Amino acid sequence: MITSANTLRQIGLSAVLAVSLSAAGTAQASLVNFKSYIECRHTQLVSFPGTIVDAAIATPELSTLVNLVVSANLVGALSAPGNLTVFAPTNDAFGKVPAPLLGLIGGDPALLTSVLTYHVSPGTVDPRRNLIPTQVKTLQGQTLFVGYDKDGASVNQSVASCKGVKTTNGTVWLIDSVLLPQFK
User: In whole numbers, what is the pLDDT of the chain averaged over residues?
Assistant: First the structure.
């Protein structure tokens, strides 16, 4: 029987992952579909020639996020040189937030800034990479959990797209819900 090198690599990676997971003893990760994980992990990022804000403006399903970023006066911060990771809730994600809560968040500039910066991490963060959730610091100051689980690439309880967008100043991952920080 002739087997391709790619097939051998995938079988080998799956075996290593299975042994690692059983050694780690994590029940949640054992529910991961390894074929989906490998496909998601190897999905190429889309290159966009502008900034994070430019990419968001060019993406119709991010119009609510763009409007809120403008309202919070965060366009400059998210357009500045550097390397940021943005977990961008889609319009459908904002549609899941009860209208009174969304109105409360949108009506308070400090609260809006806190919620939006909770979706941004300094540096490169890839939610497709880890089978065991990893904590990531946000610009807001609190942490998120990123990793790959039975639902796919995840950020807290939100599912992230396997195809991120690489911009001139960072990476954008579309997510299916709005992340809310802990309020004191």
Answer: 87
